[in-house]
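Continuing the batch. This is chain 6 of the set; chains 1 through 5 are on the previous pages. Same settings as before, nothing changed between runs. Recording input and output for traceability.
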Amino acid sequence: MAKGDVKLLTMWASPFCMRVKVALAEKEIAYEEIEEKDLMNDKSDLLLKSNPVHKQVPVLLHDDKPIAESTNIITYIDQVWSAKPLLPECAYEKSRARFWADYIDRKVHPAGRAIWSSNDKDEVEVAKNNFLDIMKYLDGTLGDKDYFNGDTFGFVDILLIGLTSYFPAYEKFGDFKLEDYYPKLAAWITRSWARETVSESLTNPEKITNFVIMMRKMFGLE
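Output for chain 6:
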C-alpha cells in the first residue's frame, strides 16, 4: 500500500525491529530496509542523524521524516495507514490495549535478559520466576481468545510476538518451558508464528539463541 517513501533502519537481532516489520507486513506497506552492521562500535551517520537522542534502532523514515521507538512507530503506522486497523475501535478496548502495550514494553524483554545475563544459579532462578510471573498476567488477559485483540491479530499481539524469538534462549538458560506453565500462551505463540507476516519478519529463534551465546561469551559468562 503506497503512501510516500518508507525506509526502516534495523538490526537483525533487535526484537523491537522485528515487531515493526510485522506491523508493516500486516499493513502491506512496501519499505526499504536499511540494516545497521555494528550498533556497538560503528553506528551509521543516518542512524545518528535520525535518532540523536537514543541512537538506537528501529527508526522509521517516512518521506525522510524520522519516527523512533518501536511502539511509537507502530502507533504512527496504524494512524497513517488506517486500513486494517491494529488497535480496536472501541475507546475502552483501545485503552486496555495501550495498558498491555506499556506492560510488555516495560517488563518482558528486561526480565528475559536477566535470565541469560547471569551465571549465578540463585540469580537465574529469581529472574526465571520473575519472567514467569510477568507471563502469568499476559496469559490471564489472553484467556481463551485466539489473539489479544480477540479474533483478529492486532496491536498487543504484534508488540509481544516481536519479542518471542528470544524466548527459546530464555528457556535454555532458565531451564524451563513456557508451555509447561502457560499452554494457552504457548499456543498463541505457535498460532502467531504460523502467520506469514510473522514468520517472514522475525529472526529464527535458533539464530537468536546463538547470538545470545555469543553475547554471554563477550560478557565472560561462557
